[in-house]
User: What shape does this take?
Amino acid sequence: MIDYTPVYERFKKGQMSLLYEVMYPGLLRYAAVTLGDELAYLAEDCVQDAVMATYERRSSFADTEHWRRYLILSIRNRALKVVRHKDVCDSYADSLAAQPDTDTERDISHALIHQEMLDTLYAAIDSLPRMYREIFEMSFEQGMRNGEIARLLDVAEITVKKRKERLLSMLRARLGGVSGFDLMALLMELRFFSEAM
Assistant: This one.
């Protein structure tokens, strides 16, 4: 097995050149295989996004293996998100082709309203402090459990739970005081769409 410790040590210091020399080709192959032949051209985007997300969190990793697992899992999650998004788009296009035009117009109106609602939610999420955005991404977009988040952030599980409560409270306030039930419905829908992307 290859020792990635030198790559990790330099990466932690903000130097990514060794990562690109040693690991990048393998990470690209991994993303391409996960994406499949039809979407393999998006492998570089998945890897770049994962590398940047990992880079932003570089000080939070306990050791080389923790860092490497996070990087690979991030690539996998991003690639699967792309595949699911394509599947949803294909399925939606097929269903549109099978529907009469009146249904299509109604669907387009619904889709526009829905997109506006999601845009408002994303703007509210983007306005959160970084610590809460990280927890939001890990919990609601990546589907991680509180224990997993606590290990990655090196905090107690109760801290993650309290931050999630605070995060939901801030989102409700930023969305004009929507009820907790309505917010959870929005977040569940957001989770469905983020998994599909």
User: Anything to note?
Assistant: The chain has a mean pLDDT of 83. The chain is about 80% helix and 0% strand. The radius of gyration is 19 Å.
